[in-house]
Amino acid sequence: MIEHFKKFFSYGFFPEEMPPEFGPYGITEEVASDLWDRIDELRPVTGGQERKPSEPTSLSFPKSEYVRRDFHFLNPLYFARLCHTILANWEDIKEHTEQSKFSTSRLILSESESQIFKHDPFSKSIDQRIRRSVAKEYVLYVDIENYYPSIYTHTIDWALNDGNKRHYSEHNNRDHVGVALDKDVHRSQGNLTSGIVIGPVTSRIISEIISSHFDQKLSSEFSDITGTRYVDDYHLFLSSKEEIERVQTVLQKTLSSFKLKFNEAKISIDTLPEVYSDYWTSIFDSKEQLIDGERADKKEVVRRFSKAFELIKSDPKNPSLRYFFRVLEDKEIIELIDLPILMELVHHSLKVDPRSISRACIALLEGELVTEEIHDELEHFEPSLIKCSNLGYRFEILWILYLFLHAGRVIPEKVIDNIISNCDIVCVVYLFKCWEHDLVSGNKIDHIKRLLRMHVREYENIWRSPLWLAVYEDKRQGWGIFNDVEVPEDFQILLSHNIQFLKDELSDDPEGIRVSRYEREINENELLF
User: Fold this and answer.
1) Could you tell me the pTM of the whole model?
2) In this structure, how many other beta carbons lie within 10 angstroms of the beta carbon of residue 77?
3) Is the pLDDT of residue 122 over 70?
4) Contact call for residues 81 and 184 (beta carbons, < 8 A)
5) Do β-strands 226-230 and 233-238 pair in parallel, antiparallel, or remain unpaired?
6) What is the share, in percent, of the chain residues with pLDDT greater than 90?
7) pLDDT band for position 126 (cuts 50, 70, 90)
C-alpha cells in the first residue's frame, strides 16, 4: 500500500485544479514508507496520547458566476493518519462498496504512477445508464442536498455496520473500521462531526462508503430496480409511477436516518429514453475549422467563444467554456490565435465562468504562451484581480497571480492589501513566491510578516492551525517570520525530506495541473463537467 499512500499524498492532498506550484512535491517511496511506518508514533490514537484536533484551511471555489462553495485541505499529518486508516482497511472498504448495484463512481486503485483511481467513472456512468434502462418506462432523478457539508461523521460507521448505531461502549473501539474513520475525519477538521470537507481525496472515499449503504438499502427493498449513482446523483429506472412513489419513500426514509435529505429542486421524473449528451458539444469539437491556412480563423474562434458565453448566460452551470478550452489544449491550434484577442477572450471567460480559468491556463501552457509575452495583455486583468482579492475569491486570485508570476508582472498593491486584510493564508504564501521574483515589494512583505507573527498568539498550537502552511514553508525556505516557533518532530520529518507544499521552481508543465485524479481513456466526444 506504500505506493498508493504516496499517490494519495502527492495527488490527493490539495483540491484539484490548484496552480501547479502547489504540491506536495518530493513524496518519494522512501518518504511515504517512513510516514507509513511511523504513523502511530507521529499521530498516536491510543494509550491516552491522542493529539488534539487540527483545523483545515479553506479555499473559496466558484460553482458558477454567482454561486461559490468552500474547499479545504487538511493538516498533512492528520491527512496522513486518515490515508493510513483508509488504505490499511482497503479490502473491507472495497468489499462494502462493491455490494452496490448502482454505483458508477466506485473507486478502484490505479497502478498508474500519476493517478489515484483506475478509471473515469463519469464516462462509465453514461454507458451504464444506457444499458440499465432497457425494458424500463421511467427514470427518477434524485440528488442528495448539500451532500458533503451535511454528512454526519458518525454515520460512516453506521454505513459500515448495516445502518446500525453501535453501543456506546464501542464508540472508541478502532477495531471497527467505521469508528476509526469517524475519529480520523472529525479530528482532522477541528473536531466537527457535522459535514466532511470538500477537496481531499479522502472525502471522496468517505462519501462512497456512505452512498453505497443507501444503494444496498434500495436493492434489498426493490429486487427489480435498476439504475446508476454517480457520487450522490441517482438515475433510477422503474416500470410504473406507483413504483416510483415507493422508491422515493424508502430512499427518503433511509436518508433521514442518516440526517440527510433530497435536494427538492433536483427531483424529477421523465419517460425513457434519456437524452445522454448535449447538442452544443458539436459546436466546439471540430479543430480543422479553427485553422485558416497558417493562422487561426479569428471569426470562428470568436464565434465559438460567443456561443459559449450565450449558453452560460442561459444556464450558469453549462460547462461549454471549459469544454472549448479543452479543445484548445493543442499547441498547433492555440499558438496560431492572435495573442491579444485570445487573452481578452480568456478575461471575458473568467467573468462568465470563473472555473474556466484553470482550463484556460492549461491551454495557454500547451501553447507555451504563459511567458513574458503576455505581460502587457495582463493589464486588463488587474481590475478583476483587485475585485476578486477584495471579495476573497481565492481560486481566481491564485490563477491570476499564476499568470502574473509567470509573465513577470508586478502585483498591484491594492491586491496585496486586500489579501493581507482578508488574511487569505494560501494567497499570502503565494505572494512570497511572487516576492522571490521581485513582483512584490520588500515593504509589503515586511507588513505580511508582522501580520503573521500577530496571528501566532491566536492559536494554542500554530502547527495544528490553518496557518501551518505558512509556518512550514517559512521554516523550509527561510523567510524569517516564525523564528521563535519550534518545529515539532512530525513536521521535522517533512522538513528533513524537503517536502515542498509550495514548489521551489516555477511550474509551467500543464501535466502538473491535477484536473483529474482518475486514469482516463481519451475520448474526444466526452463531456467535461
Assistant:
1) 0.93
2) 23
3) no
4) yes
5) antiparallel
6) 83
7) confident
> Residue 457 contacts by C-beta under 8 Å, 6 or more apart in sequence?
none
- Indicate the Cα dihedral angle 237, 224, 95, 514, nearest 10°: -10
For 280, the grid coordinates are: 452544443
Kindly state the cell numbers that stand for 448: 505580511
What dihedral angle (degrees, nearest 10) is formed by the CA atoms of 10, 11, 13, 16?
Answer: 150
Through-space distance between the first and last CA atoms of the chain, rounded to whole angstroms: 30
Which burial class, exposed, middle or buried, applies to 529 when counting CB atoms under 10 A from its CB (0-12, 13-18, 19+)?
exposed
Residue 321: closest CA among 16, 529, 19: 529
Instruction: Name the residue with cell 472549448.
Output: 324
In angstroms, what CA-CA distances link 99 with 106, 124, 213? Answer: 10, 17, 9
Cell 437524452 maps to which residue? 275
- Hey, what's the cell of 529? 463537467
CA-CA-CA-CA dihedral for 294, 295, 299, 301, to nearest 10: 120
CA–CA distance, 268 with 109 (Å, rounded to integer): 34
Side chain identity at 241, as an amino acid letter? K
Residue 227 has pLDDT above 50, yes or no: yes
What is the per-residue DSSP string for 425-437?
A: HHHHHHHHHHHHT
Retrieve residue 116's grid coordinates: 489515484
The average pLDDT across 171-194 equals 95
> Which pLDDT belongs to residue 324?
96
- Kindly report the backbone phi and psi dihedral angles of residue 208, in degrees, each rounded to the nearest multiple of 5, phi listed first: -70, -35
Q: What's the CA gap between 410 and 440, in Å, rounded? A: 7
How many other C-beta atoms are found inside a 10 Å radius of the C-beta of residue 269?
A: 15
Asked whether the predicted pLDDT for residue 523 surpasses 90, the reply is: no
Q: E-assigned strands of 275-343?
A: 291-292, 295-296
How many Å apart are CA 61 and CA 388, to the nearest integer?
A: 11
Q: Is 442 exposed, middle or buried (0-12, 13-18, 19+ CB in 10 A)?
A: exposed
Q: Are 503 and 22 in contact (CB under 8 A)?
A: yes
Going by their DSSP bridges, the two strands 57-62 and 68-73 should be labelled as: antiparallel
Residue 528: per-residue pLDDT = 35
Q: Contact 411/442 with Cβ under 8 angstroms?
A: no
Rounded distance between C-alpha atoms, residue 407 and residue 375, angstroms: 5
Q: What is the DSSP letter of 343?
A: H
- Could you give the 3-state DSSP secondary structure of residue 340? helix
Residue 269's DSSP bridge partners are 140
